[in-house]
Amino acid sequence: MTGTYIIWGTPHSLYTGKVRSYLIKKRVSFREIMASDARFLSDVTERVGHRVIPVMETPEGELVQDTTAIIDLVESRETGPHFTPPGPVQKFVAHLVDAFGSNYMMPLAMHYRWSYREKQELFLRTEFARAVPPMEHEQRLETAGKLMTRFSGFLPGLGVTPAVIPAMEASYVELLDALEQHFRLHPYLLGGRPSLADFGMMAPLYAHLGRDPVPAYLMKTTAPSVFRWTERMNSPEIIDGEYAGYSDSFPTDDHIPPTLEAILAIIFAHWTPGFTADTACFNAWVNDHSNPAPGTLVSYNDSRSVHPTVGWIRYPWRDVVMERASNPHSLWHFSRAQTLADGLSGADANRLDQLLDRTGGRAMLASRTERALTRKDNVLVLA
């Protein structure tokens, strides 16, 4: 252990929940400080380049933004429990589910928070008030209300409209049921030890869907084992005795639990239509820019954004038509899994091919960007 890390975030933040869970399981020393902190609002925000949470400060004073970068850094430096599965197909699955939870699930989480704002007003306003700079209580609540209205205004750009909400909610119930069946048998997604898959799914399933009153009621009454998993993910213990005979290790022989395969089939069915539309939109943006140089900011209007867009997309999804801003960040995130898949050969490649055939994942894996993406100075750029 090299010292104490600092995380600036909030209890109700989707991505703070992901990093907090990882640091708890990693058993490193860290302090979590609210985003209303004066230093965060001045020095930290200036150095990062925009106001976003979470941001981590290392014991050496380095600032790191983006949950993927934070976990990569701490995992490479600290000697606590490691969460990378040994099998190559297991590694692919961990990166896939991490990208799914961190990207695809975000509009669902936002829907359940803001489409049901009226039913959760007091809880949400109180939570958001904690994240504004210190002032009189009523003034904090008023400021929180303005912040809430700003965030709820993001829904149309995320594709959340009255026409698609029933299909979105049906898809979430389907996923919740598959997760419930899995967590009745296994403590974590890949078995006896958490991985990136678990941390990625903690992003939406804790702060929004497991904590906000309306979706938390849905989870607790229809998928109690999923709710219990969110509690387990915020405990430093790996194995707590709840699952008899389970050791704190990943399955041998690159095994994927059958109940996880059912989840993967849902992931590919739900995400592939939007992912391929995102890929097509990004490739069209690249071609419109006449061979843009490496380091070119990924943005439709040249503005820095944590989650940039390069255009509007429209595609059939389930029994509706989805319309939303494109999400190139999801392409970068899933490319980590694609890169792993490209490096497989022999028996490893055959096992992945068979898994993709069983779960319907070939089309998504084959959807490729014409230019690679990377992150530099806390924004998405062309590699």
Automatic annotation (TrEMBL):
SUPFAM superfamilies cross-referenced by the UniProt entry: GST C-terminal domain-like, Thioredoxin-like
Keyword Transferase: yes
Keywords of the record: Transferase
Protein's recorded name: Glutathione S-transferase family protein
One MF annotation (Gene Ontology) recorded for this entry: transferase activity
Domain GST N-terminal: 10-81
